[in-house]
Specification:
This protein has 194 residues and is α+β, with helices and mostly antiparallel strands. The protein has one domain: 50s Ribosomal Protein L5, Chain: A. It contains five helices and five strands. A five-stranded antiparallel β-sheet has the order 2-3-1-5-4. Helix 1 packs across helix 4. The protein is globular, with a radius of gyration of 20 Å.
Length: 194
């Protein structure tokens, strides 16, 4: 089985750059993505359980892997939610499917977002893992716009072997994550003169 383009990029370009940036001498210590978790929860599923089937089919088409339907753990009467009721979908991607999904996300889906200025870098968890949110599934080319009846958002979590957020950010940046550039702060005339 041949390697995906992103996996080849990681091995040939990203790994040497990370070794140089963080003075890493052992290639096995270089941060890498272990898995990508795509999760969605749909509040409309409380009234109409068929929406979960639609979301599961679309998420399966996006990721190329069968999804797991998530269920409510406890009943909440204010939300008309019963324990065991389906409320969302989740899929965990590893190896080739993970690299294929990440490549499509970075190079095809995110540039299709209207007025896209970059991904906020504030989604790190202090351990090098990164979570980002998308508001609609229609940015992926696999979704047929004529068949979309409900739009749903999703959380995408990149689980890495990085030890710090700085390592995790540099890893995702080198792989092609379009992080938002920090805005230059304007200096006030009184501060500049002082």
């Amino acid at each position: 089985m041949s390697k995906s383009l992103l996996q080849e990029k990681y091995e040939q370009l990203v790994t040497p750059q990370l070794m140089k940036d963080f003075q890493i001498t052992n290639r096995h210590r270089v941060p890498k993505i272990v898995k990508v978790v795509v999760n969605t929860s749909i509040k409309e599923a409380v009234q109409d359980s068929k929406i979960i089937d639609i979301a599961a089919n679309e998420l399966s088409a996006l990721t190329g892997q069968r999804v797991v339907v998530t269920r409510a753990k406890k009943s909440i009467s204010n939300f008309k939610l019963r324990a065991g009721q389906p409320i969302g979908c989740c899929v965990t991607l590893r190896r080739d499917r993970m690299y294929d999904f990440v490549l499509r996300l970075f190079s095809v889906a995110l540039p299709r977002v209207r007025d896209f200025k970059g991904v906020s870098p504030r989604g790190f968890d202090r351990n090098g893992n990164f979570t980002m949110g998308l508001t609609e599934q229609v940015i992926f080319p696999e979704v047929d716009l004529n068949k979309v009846t409900h739009t749903f958002g999703m959380n995408i979590t990149f689980v890495t072997t990085a030890h710090t957020d700085e390592e995790g950010r540099r890893l995702l940046e080198l792989l092609g994550m379009p992080f938002r550039k920090p805005q230059p702060t304007a200096t006030t005339p009184t501060a500049a003169a002082a």
